[in-house]
Amino acid sequence: MRARRAERGFAQQLRQIARAVGDIVRGRFDPLDLQASTIAIGEMLSGYADLITPWARAVAYRLLADISRRDAAGWHRLGQQINRALVQEIETTPMQQMLHDLLETQVDLIRSIPLDARERVHELSVRAMTGGGRWEEIAEQTLNQYGVSRSKANLIARTETGRAQTEFQRVRAEHIGSEGYIWRTARDLDVRALHRRLEGTTRPSPVSAANGLIRAASTTAAAGASRSSPARPCSSAHCRATGHSSRHCVNGVTRHRRAD
């Protein structure tokens, strides 16, 4: 539930950008001077992308901090049930590089909302000037940049919230010696065939040998899965598969499998 709230809050903030994009396009679009208005819109959207960069970084950082706190709390509860020594290991998990990568990716995606709108307006303008479509339809599509940008904002929020959750789980799991995860799906008609066959199976996690952990085995867990590219739950907005933790004992030390 809290993850859903984080996603909704993130989406609400990104939709503000979509609304501003729509206002810029509607305010500057001039069907009587298409070329000049297209140039003006492009310049304003580029400037807007630069303007929101510090804001985008702050918004992305707040999202990641919220997800990190929630994920750490879950691991703390699990660590107290299994082995209190895990709590200290979790607290020392190296997160800096992963956080930096996620933050930069999210900033780029947020900036892409006005930049992609700029490209769409330019393409529609070229179509109008070269007779590539009906003028009325092109004008309507040009003025509908808020709707398109709003859909993109919602998709970014949904995808990036899931990606962040996946990455926090993966890094902390590998740090404490996770060997894998149990594959779970939504068990509905939208689950793809391969993912349905993997339901309930145990999948190996990629683990860092540099930290003295176990290397991931290149194995096939179900018919149709490639040895060179083993299937894993992903952070796509439309993926219906997830990984779930389970207790596991290795060399007398209780550890747990966790989703990567």
Account of the protein in words:
With 260 residues, this protein is mostly helical. It has two domains: 174 residues, no CATH class; 78 residues, no CATH class. A hairpin with a 2-residue loop joins strand 4 and strand 5. The longest helix is centred in the middle third of the chain and has 34 residues. The two termini are 21 Å apart. The C terminus is likely disordered.
State the main characteristics:
single chain, 5 strands, mainly alpha, 3-stranded antiparallel sheet, elongated, two-stranded antiparallel sheet, 62% helix, 260 residues
Question: Quick summary of this structure?
Answer:
The chain is 62% helix and 9% strand. With 260 residues, it is mainly α.
List the helices and strands and how they pair.
Blueprint: H1 2-28, H2 34-51, H3 53-82, H4 85-91, H5 96-129, H6 135-143, H7 145-175, E1 180-185, H8 193-197, E2 202-204, E3 241-244, E4 246-250, E5 253-257
Helix pairs in contact: 1-2, 1-3, 1-5, 1-7, 2-5, 3-4, 3-5, 3-7, 5-6, 5-7
